[in-house]
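Journal club prep — side note

Before the paper discussion, L.F. wants everyone to see what a predicted structure for a comparable chain looks like in token form. Sequence:
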Amino acid sequence: MPYEPPFQVTPPIVHQISQIAALLGEVQQSPLVTSPQLRKQNRIRTIQGTLAIEGNTLTVAQITAILEGKPVLGEPKEIQEVQGAIRAYEALKGWDARQKKDLLTAHQLLMGEILTEAGKFRRGGVGIYKGTKVTHVAPPAKRVPFLIDDLLQWLATTEHHPLISSSVFHYELEFIHPFSDGNGRMGRLWQTLILGKWNDLFYLLPMESLIKAQADRYYQALEQADRAADSTIFIEFMLDVIMATLNQYVKPTDQATDQATDQVQQLLAIMGDRTAHPGPYWTTRELMAQLGLSHQPTFRKNYLKPAIAAGLVRMRYPNQPRHPQQQYRKT
């Protein structure tokens, strides 16, 4: 019998899919689609988010420098991880999510500089630890090629919505843990590929950044799905992440729609990224660093002042605009 991953299409999932469909229509009109700079910034956030989940400490500014070919001070392994992720995401559109050879090629690009077994399935057993506690024991290595074949065959033939099938694939890949390292990165990469084949907009969305901001919930959803032997809870979590990602690009009012420029949208995307900055308030210096800007008058004129005027950003000390400790938060 063909393999059928265990999960249920619950009423909440149906509701989430309808909400996402509506949000996609709105986001299609946003600068995310038309602004090359915003698309570049989101790719950087994607790479920073997916690697930060795995412990990489490089910042958005450092990853921007690597992408632009500039020298960066950092651990060689972390820099190599960024370079591998850049290569993998640049090649993403050319792959077929249903093909094993493409899955292995993607892993080779992603992990080639840091893993001797890159592009090959693991040959030994593996367990996932949380501290000293084993939270997941992956299937034996000799079963991995057959399990991946079954999963890819299911993906090629399923009639479930891509929002569901991509989340199921993501979870199942984590469960099988087919590689000696890089499985989380591959699961997130392949979900983006599946969704991108359905709607190009997903190639531009920094979902990984939102997953990083909710890393505890991400791992909890994986563990709960393991215990239930059913990926429903993980599907619901990923659909929440997708909705949160899309909501970053939906303008709250008609006035904001009229007044929000590409620069303002870039500023709002940065301020909504809890990976880049976990607190609610940002300083001018922090925001300029994330945007890669060095000229403060340009930043104030084109980014900060229009955002404040549109009611999208507010000051910590609104009655003292020139307060020496002035900070800003997204409304």
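L.F.'s comment for the group: Residues 254-330 form one domain. Keep this in mind when we get to the figures.
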